[in-house]
Design a protein that fits this description.
- The chain is mainly alpha-helical.
- It folds into two domains: about 90 residues, Orthogonal Bundle (Arc Repressor Mutant, subunit A), CATH 1.10.10; about 40 residues.
- The chain contains seven helices and two strands; from the N terminus they run αααααββαα.
- The longest helix has about 40 residues.
Length: about 160
């Protein structure tokens, strides 16, 4: 099998502008303010510090601070000093933020569910499983590549 040809087909199928919009819609919900507000929504009621958000999103603490400033300005979150440890700032989602997250989540899930339903049960299940496998393997290969590059850099420095 020619996997390079298959990879080319995948890219060609995803490239037309309208199709790119679909991928961008998925991307919007997994980055920046959306990702932070969804994290806070899912973890509401728990004490959350900015460093927890940074770790979850794999985003720098400086970027998280900017995102939190924006969300606070929009009335979606509040920040307060921890009563137990005055060095910690606790982040909470507001009712406005909760409503926004619920609406955005419901809209996204409704649209995604409609597409999966249009595919039919069998194809939808296969598609979801295939995407999971694809992403897991891509992530694993990326980690392997980073480890190899890191080892090569160490050898060059020591060698």
């Amino acid at each position: 099998m020619d996997y390079n040809h298959l990879a080319e087909q995948l890219i060609v199928n995803a490239k037309p502008p309208k199709r790119t919009e679909i991928f961008n819609r998925f991307s919007v919900y997994s980055h920046g303010e959306h990702q932070v507000i969804f994290y806070l929504f899912k973890n509401s009621g728990k004490p959350i510090v900015p460093s927890d958000i940074s770790k979850y999103t794999d985003t720098s603490t400086a970027r998280i601070a900017t995102i939190l400033n924006n969300l606070e300005d929009k009335g979606m979150i509040t920040r307060e000093i921890s009563r137990e440890d005055r060095r910690k700032i606790l982040v909470s989602i507001t009712d406005k933020g909760r409503k926004y997250a619920e609406n955005a989540h419901n809209e996204f899930m409704g649209h995604t569910a409609a597409v999966l339903q249009a595919m039919g049960e069998e194809r939808a299940k296969e598609f979801v499983e295939s995407v999971k496998i694809f992403l897991d393997l891509a992530l694993s290969l990326e980690r392997d590549k980073q480890e190899t590059n890191s080892e090569m850099e160490k050898k060059e420095k020591n060698g």
